[in-house]
Amino acid sequence: MKNFKQKLWLKADGIVILIAVVLATTSRLLNIQNNISDFMFLIGMALICLTIINILLHAGLLAGWFRKKQKGETDEEYQERKIDVRNIASEKKNAPIHFESFAANCLILGIVLIVLAIAVTL
């Protein structure tokens, strides 16, 4: 949790949350809360999708694919180019989840916007 708190951009997150709260209260006063709620919900879902994409891009899902011997390639060249499966499995596939500051902030903002969108419609 301590490491997660270090990754947050407090000023930027605070400004976005403040704008969202002002927008939510204004929509309540102008009686357009359904439109604003839908917009905030969609933005929140997009931010959560960005978080998932960011995490999956660093997951090494395509690491360690088998490479075939190319036409005209000698056995020595193929052995140099060949991927060590044990090395890939131990280093890349079993590495911890890469959760950088962009993903952490998108996740926090996405959750806050979705909760705020639900609260506006109640």
From TrEMBL:
Signal peptide, first to last residue: none
Membrane spanning residue stretches: 12-30, 42-66, 102-120
Keyword Cell inner membrane: no
DUF3899 domain span: 38-122
Domain of life according to the entry: Bacteria
InterPro entries from the UniProt entry: DUF3899 (IPR025007)
Keywords: Membrane, Transmembrane, Transmembrane helix
Protein name in UniProt: DUF3899 domain-containing protein
